[in-house]
Design goal:
It is built from one helix and twelve strands, in the order H-E-E-E-E-E-E-E-E-E-E-E-E. It has one helix at about 5-30, and strands spanning about 35-45, 55-60, 65, 75-80, 85-95, 95-100, 100, 110-120, 135-145, 150-160, 180-190, 195-205. The chain has a five-stranded mixed β-sheet with strand order 2-12-11-8-9, with no helix packed on it.
Length: about 210
């Protein structure tokens, strides 16, 4: 074997290893758990009407409350509510087997979600936190997604404090709207200790909307 041929073979080996590594990179980044989380539903609601869940949220930055305590129709109370969210998750095995012998999940595949991250982005690319969009934040929420079926968990989609900070606080006194896409990522571990995460998107428009009657 000539020195040049040996050099070519060595180079080919390096390239082959690099290609193999690149091919499995996405799988490695996606986690090592035998199961992955799948979002089947992601909804939110205005804190002024928390039962009115929808896939598109109108987040009211200031609500005039007319009942309860000293509040009345003649003496409305300016109130700020945080906005709730609700997610439905299920598990999907990475190796589903074949039609003749499909894989079945085990109790070890159950995933316990313990925290989440919310980040807001605008379609026009103006995404400076505290200027164009509210600050991103992390929150805690603990619930377990069973190996079969689906599980529902609640979380905070918009914090109350965000409506007391720029850029949302200025919306209370004008008719401007800010439309964002909220990227909500849920983090957890299966019962074998493998990290699992999944991200869902939901549209959130901020403004001073009409108050519930």
């Amino acid at each position: 074997m000539t020195a040049k041929l040996a050099q070519y073979l060595t180079l080919f080996g390096v390239v082959a290893v690099s290609a193999a590594t690149a091919g499995c990179g996405e799988f490695v980044r996606d986690g090592k758990s035998p199961a992955r989380l799948v979002i089947t539903s992601l909804q939110g609601a205005s804190g002024a009407e928390p039962d009115e869940l929808a896939t598109v949220v109108r987040s009211d930055v200031l609500t005039m409350v007319t009942d309860g305590g000293a509040c009345s129709t003649t003496n409305p109370c300016p109130t700020i509510f945080g906005d709730p969210g609700l997610v439905e998750l299920q598990l999907q095995l990475r190796d589903i087997g074949d039609p003749a012998s499909p894989s079945s999940p085990s109790p070890l595949n159950a995933v316990t979600v313990t925290r989440y991250h919310v980040e807001y982005r605008r379609s026009d690319g103006r995404n400076t936190q505290g200027v164009d969009v509210p600050y991103a934040f992390d929150g805690a929420a603990t619930f377990t997604v069973a190996p079969e079926g689906s599980s529902i968990g609640g979380f905070t989609l918009v914090r109350e404090v965000a409506k007391r900070q720029a850029p949302l606080t200025t919306l209370a006194t004008d008719s401007t709207l800010i439309t964002t896409i909220a990227y909500v990522t849920f983090y957890g571990r299966d019962q074998a200790g493998n990290d699992v995460s999944v991200t869902g998107l939901i549209e959130v428009t901020f403004g001073n909307f009409g108050d519930p009657q």
